[in-house]
Structure formats: C-alpha cells, structure tokens
Write a structure and sequence with these properties.
Helix content is 45%, strand content 14%. The model has no long low-confidence stretch (mean pLDDT 97). The longest helix has 14 residues, at 126-139. A 7-stranded parallel sheet has the order 1-2-3-4-5-6-7. It is an alpha/beta fold. It has a single domain, classed as TIM Barrel. Bound molecules: orotidine-5'-monophosphate. Orotidine-5'-monophosphate is lined by residues 2, 4, 27, 52, 78, 105, 108-109, 146, 168-170, 180, 198-202.
Length: 221
C-alpha cells in the first residue's frame, strides 16, 4: 500500500487503521515531510518498506544517493530507468552488500500514448517503451521494474519470472481513475503477471479503508 499521506502523524494513524497491511510504500511526500523516522516506525512494527524516491540524475549522483539509502535497510528503492544504463549500473553497485533491491521506474502510469508521442516526442507506444526500459533495467542487474499492469505480461515473458513487475495504476471496478492512464483491476493485474500491486487512493480515500483493503484481497482469491 502507498502511504501517500502528508506527515508522520497521519502516517502513524493510517498504519494503525490498517494493521493487516504488511508492505508499505513511502513516497516523496511523506519522506520529505517526516524524514527517515517513518522508516523506523515501520521497521519497529515489522513491516516491509518500499522507499519510492525515484532517483533520476547523473551516474555519480544516483550512486551517491544509493550509498546514502543503503543503511536504511529498506526492501525496495526506486530509480527512473531514463537515468540510462550507466546510472542504473552505478546505483546498483553503490547498494553494495545491502539487502535493498533496486527497482526501475519505466514509464509513469499517468502517461498515455498521446502524451508519450505528442508531448514528450517519443515515437513509441507505451508498451514498446516499457519493454525497452525493462531491458535496460534487466541488463543493469536491477531486481525489477515498476510498470503498468497492462505491460506486466510482456515484461514477464521478456525478462523472466524472477524479474519483479511492480504495478501501480490499480483500480478496482467503480473507483475513480484520477490521474492514472494505464490501469487494470487488481484481479486483472495479477492475472497479467504483476508480482506486486501498488495501491493508494482506492483504499486511502475509501469511506472504510479496512473494508476496501479486505474487499481487494478477497477479489484476488
Ligand atoms: O513508482 C511508483 O510507485 C509509481 C510509479 C508509476 O508509474 N505510477 C504510480 O502511480 N506510482 C505510485 O503508485 C501510487 C499509486 O497510487 P494510487 O493511484 O493512489 O493508487 C502512488 O504512490 C504513485 O506515486
């Protein structure tokens, strides 16, 4: 679950409201607001942690950031694959002996074909672009990628089962799409080969978040 909340106080309340959630994603909003203390809070409760900082810079700088992140001991940390092969490799190397797995963000799930081709002037369809980015991440030795569930099957076929496909853009039927452009239902996402689903607003903004979480889990059985 994405712990997309504005500060430490709300984060702690949210973790308590959803004790059944075992794996939390801490993103830029909360990490900037709370600093690394939120990681200690989650660790103290035995939770797994996905630190979603989406590194994107020159190789020397992403490597330095990865070295600074390694001692946090989180499970996953993200880097944009558009950083390029050299940056992906140096960041992976910089994590050294740490158990943290480096995950490449391929193409944000908010970007549709029109935005990719017209606005960003990248003459590929999103699935082909994601495949190219998955290849880079795979070649650099990363543990997996973030992609939309719509690309999960192709990435699995291309890079193998062990290469993680972490999929946001998850929308149970009847929930608002919002800014997500390439989405699927939880059930369809797993069927398509997602290793993990990342879900925020459909649960956080539900009238009863615990029920929304349980309903999603039940829909997967
Ligand atoms: O790296 C991510 O986690 C991420 C990548 C991406 O392409 N799309 C995407 O939505 N995310 C994150 O996944 C979460 C999705 O949240 P909801 O749209 O509220 O379910 C947010 O925390 C996003 O920052």
């Amino acid at each position: 679950m994405a712990l997309d909340v504005p500060n430490l106080e709300v984060a702690i309340a949210t973790i308590h409201t959803l004790p059944q959630v075992q794996f939390w994603k801490v993103g830029l909003e909360l990490f900037c607001a709370s600093g690394p203390i939120i990681l200690d809070v989650l660790k103290d409760q035995g939770k797994r942690i996905f630190l979603d900082l989406k590194l994107h810079d020159i190789p020397n700088t992403v490597a330095a950031a990865a070295r600074a992140i390694a001692p946090y001991g989180v499970d996953f940390v993200t880097i944009h694959t558009a950083t390029g092969l050299a940056g992906l490799k140096t960041a992976q190397t910089a994590l050294g002996e740490s158990s943290t797995q480096l995950i490449g963000v391929t193409l944000l799930t908010s970007i549709d074909a029109n935005t990719l081709q017209q606005e960003l002037q990248i003459p590929l369809d999103p699935a082909t672009y994601v495949e190219r980015m998955a290849d880079l991440a795979h070649q650099a030795g990363l543990a997996g990628i973030v992609c939309s569930p719509q690309e999960a099957a192709r990435v699995k076929q291309r890079c193998g089962e062990a290469f993680l496909r972490i999929c946001p853009g998850i929308r149970p039927l009847g929930t608002a799409t919002g800014d997500q452009a390439r989405s699927l239902t939880p059930n369809a996402a797993f069927a398509a080969g997602a290793s993990y689903l990342v879900i925020g607003r459909p649960i956080l903004q539900a009238a009863d978040p615990a029920k929304a979480f349980d309903d999603i889990c039940r829909s997967l059985i």
